[in-house]
C-alpha cells in the first residue's frame, strides 16, 4: 500500500526518483540528506522510500514517540531519544542497527539555516555501526529526489575524514543540487578549517 501511495503522491506533486546506485544500498545505511533548507525534503524523501519499498528512520525527541500520537510517529520511522540526558548518540545508533536493517536519516547541517560547515556525527555513526554512508538529495530545480550513491564501509575504514568529506562535497557540487531555499545552502561543507577536516 505504501508503494502505491508514495508513487501516486510523487506523481501528483510532479516529482521523480532517480537511483544513483543499487536500490539495495538503501537497506542498511546512514542516509545523509542535503541540502537541508526546508521540511519538504523529509516529506519527499519519505515518499521516495515508500515508492521503493524501503525502511526509513529518523531520530527525534522521545516526547513525540511517547505522546498520544506516538504510534503514528513511530510508524513513520521516528526513533525517540531523550535529548535532555547526555546520551551517547553514536553508540545508540550502532545498537539500533543491531536490531534491524534500515536507512537512518541524518542532516549534517543540523539546521535549516545556513551553516559554515557540517557536523561530524554522521561519519562516526557509520563507523560505529559498520554501515555505509549513502547520499540523498532533493533537487528543487528539477523536481527530483536522488538516492543511492554509496560510500562503502570499507572505504570509511581506510579513507581519512577529509577524503570522505571531499567525496561528499564533490557529489553535491557535481550534481548541481537546487535547494528549496538557496540562501540557506552552503556547498562548502568542510568549511575553512582544513586542519580540523583532516582529523
From TrEMBL:
Phospholipid/glycerol acyltransferase domain ranges (all copies): 30-141
InterPro entries, alphabetized: Plipid/glycerol_acylTrfase (IPR002123)
Keywords linked to the UniProt accession: Acyltransferase, Transferase
Pathway: Lipid metabolism
GO molecular function, one term: 1-acylglycerol-3-phosphate O-acyltransferase activity
GO biological process, one term: phosphatidic acid biosynthetic process
PANTHER family xrefs: 1-ACYL-SN-GLYCEROL-3-PHOSPHATE ACYLTRANSFERASE, PHOSPHOLIPID_GLYCEROL ACYLTRANSFERASE DOMAIN-CONTAINING PROTEIN
Name recorded for this polypeptide: 1-acyl-sn-glycerol-3-phosphate acyltransferase
Organism annotation: Chryseobacterium balustinum
Amino acid at each position: 500500500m505504501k508503494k502505491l501511495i508514495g508513487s501516486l503522491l510523487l506523481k501528483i506533486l510532479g516529482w521523480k526518483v532517480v537511483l544513483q546506485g543499487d536500490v539495495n544500498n538503501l537497506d542498511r545505511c546512514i542516509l545523509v540528506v542535503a541540502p537541508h533548507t526546508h521540511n519538504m525534503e523529509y516529506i519527499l524523501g519519505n515518499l521516495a522510500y515508500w515508492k521503493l519499498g524501503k525502511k526509513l528512520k529518523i531520530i527525534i525527541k522521545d516526547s513525540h514517540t511517547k505522546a498520544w500520537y506516538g504510534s503514528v510517529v513511530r510508524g513513520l520511522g521516528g526513533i525517540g531519544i531523550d535529548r535532555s540526558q547526555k546520551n551517547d548518540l553514536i553508540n545508540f545508533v550502532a545498537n539500533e542497527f543491531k536490531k534491524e536493517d534500515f536507512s537512518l536519516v541524518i542532516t549534517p547541517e543540523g539546521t535549516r539555516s545556513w551553516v559554515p560547515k557540517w557536523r561530524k556525527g554522521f561519519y562516526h555513526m557509520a563507523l560505529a555501526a559498520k554501515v555505509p554512508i549513502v547520499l540523498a538529495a532533493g533537487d528543487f530545480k528539477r523536481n527530483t529526489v536522488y538516492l543511492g550513491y554509496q560510500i562503502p564501509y570499507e572505504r570509511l575504514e581506510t579513507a581519512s575524514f577529509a577524503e570522505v568529506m571531499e567525496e561528499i562535497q564533490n557529489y553535491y557540487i557535481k550534481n548541481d543540487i537546487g535547494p528549496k531555499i538557496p540562501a540557506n545552502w552552503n556547498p562548502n561543507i568542510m568549511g575553512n578549517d582544513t586542519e580540523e577536516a583532516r582529523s
